[in-house]
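Dear Dr. L.,

I hope this message finds you well. Following up on our conversation about the binding site, I have prepared a predicted three-dimensional model of the protein together with zinc ion. For your records, I am including the exact sequence and ligand specification that went into the calculation, followed by the structure tokens. Please feel free to forward this to your student if that is useful.
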Amino acid sequence: DAPLEIAQLGNDILRRKAQSVERIDDPKIQSAIDNLIATARLKNGVGIAAPQVSRSYRLFIVASRPNERYPDAPEMEPTAMLNPGILSHGEERVKGWEGCLSVPGFRGLVPRYERIEVEYWDRQGRHNVRELSGFIARIFQHELDHLNGILFIDRAE
Ligand SMILES: O=C(CSC(=O)[C@H](Cc1ccccc1)CC(F)(F)F)c1ccccc1
Ligand SMILES: [Zn+2]
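The resulting structure of the complex is given below.
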């Protein structure tokens, strides 16, 4: 579970559309999940997407925890989300601070939907449909952008 090299701004892999995961029980996918969780923890991230460690799969980790910008952020078990999507969202957008392990040294105020209904498959291959809001919804939208080659600086105001 060695933490992996993080692709930096300018690396073309960050601008590609990632490929859907075909077999969730593929050992390559399961080890990518373990490596992403280790990397997020080591780099103190609240999320990380597979393209950031140069694996162009539709897979990311959401690992919300309280931090200096979001002291009341929920503490959660790092969760792998495969082939994720937004099913519906509210109208309201909220601006919030974001950073990115692939864009070090920058912070930006990014508008995100406050409430979203999402689907994803978990690492056991189960289909999940969830309502997310607040900081976790923000992380989900930030990571989903990574799977579509979008970075928070493209949206920062
Ligand atoms: O922990 C970070 C470091 S940046 C981070 O964790 C990114 C995720 C993220 C941070 C803030 C808002 C949404 C997503 C991780 C990335 F780059 F892999 F996606 C943080 C930065 C700003 C606000 C709150 C927390
Ligand atoms: Zn990011």
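In brief: The pocket of K3U (ligand 1) is lined by residues 44-48, 52, 67, 69-70, 97-102, 138-139, 142-143 (CB under 6 Å).

With kind regards,
A. P.
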